[in-house]
Amino acid sequence: MAVAVTALLALCGAHPASAAAHPGPARRAAALPSAVSVLSDLWNRPWTVTFLPDGQRALVTERHSAGVWTVARDGSRTKVGEVPDTVFAPTGGDFGEGGGLLGVAPSPTWNGTTDQDVYFVHTAADETRVVRMRFDGTSLTDYQVVLGGIARGGDHNGGKIAFGPDGFLYVSTGDARNKALAQDPNSLNGKILRLTASGGAAPGNPFGTRVYSLGHRNPEGFAWDARGRLWETEIGDATWDEVNLISPGANYGWPTCEGTCTTAGMTNPVHVWHPAEGGVPAQAAIADDVLYVSTLRGERLWALPIDATGTGLGTAVSYYTGAYGRLRALAKVPDADELWLGTSDRGTDKDSLLKVTLG
Ligand SMILES: [Ca+2]
């Protein structure tokens, strides 16, 4: 009977929500973007959107101002503080890339009272830091460096930070425009790091250090899928941008390889773009086994379905090409068929947070 119902639904081209109402072994059909609207405006280069564990408010960072806001589900926002010692140093490039305040990760058990820990990545004058502050739900205080000594560049500073399903803290770092660092196992740069809450090497790391994976150029995004696998977005050099499926201890090639190569010991990307053909990927979010990727130069949102093997990606579909300019911050809204997506580099008070409805 289940087979017959499934076949009938398929013949009818049933809406995914209808299919989801019927129990069965098949996973829910992906609910793809169906509408987009402005959730909040008057932003200046928001770098990241990350929801607090209660799912009711997100923390949003601005890279230049070092300001941090909460944004409620209705789009209302409140400034809660700034991250001290943040130094933005524009490189003179077209978009003034230059570090600043980057990612934010609340403790997975943050509740504003007994657990107030919120982590940030930012560039200081001479280094990139992972820091911890206390957030009581209203204001940020008590700045503490938990990991300094990460080389900073004018750009290539990585900056994504999140607690994984295993409870440890993952941080992406760029090569800081010193390519050799990405292959140096003793450098914190050009890596995905896996840390304890106090900034040490997490137990079980592949080399007994803070390094989880290496050979990255400028990874600005990552997200875990429903199987617990870690997908990463990485800005390459002039030829290939990448999506990688991250395995502990694997070497993702840079600078020996850009994109796919045949060098022994290097792990190839799962998906690549040319920078001029929809590329320069910023951040990642996953909903219903679809990997969403925001792109800067590409000025579009990509949807890449995770295939039945769980380790490959199907045909990429793009949305909103050129409609909103460069796109960076990206988050799945908890318990909702919704993404929040930030524009970037549109000028003073001209950036927006967009609400993307799925399904
Ligand atoms: Ca690579």
Automatic annotation (TrEMBL):
Gene3D superfamilies: TolB, C-terminal domain (2.120.10.30). Keywords: Signal. Pfam families: GSDH. InterPro entries: 6-blade_b-propeller_TolB-like, Glc/Sorbosone_DH, Quinoprot_gluc/sorb_DH_b-prop. SUPFAM superfamilies: Soluble quinoprotein glucose dehydrogenase. It comes from the Bacteria. Residues 44-346 form the Glucose/Sorbosone dehydrogenase domain. Residues 1-19 form the signal peptide. This is Oxidoreductase.
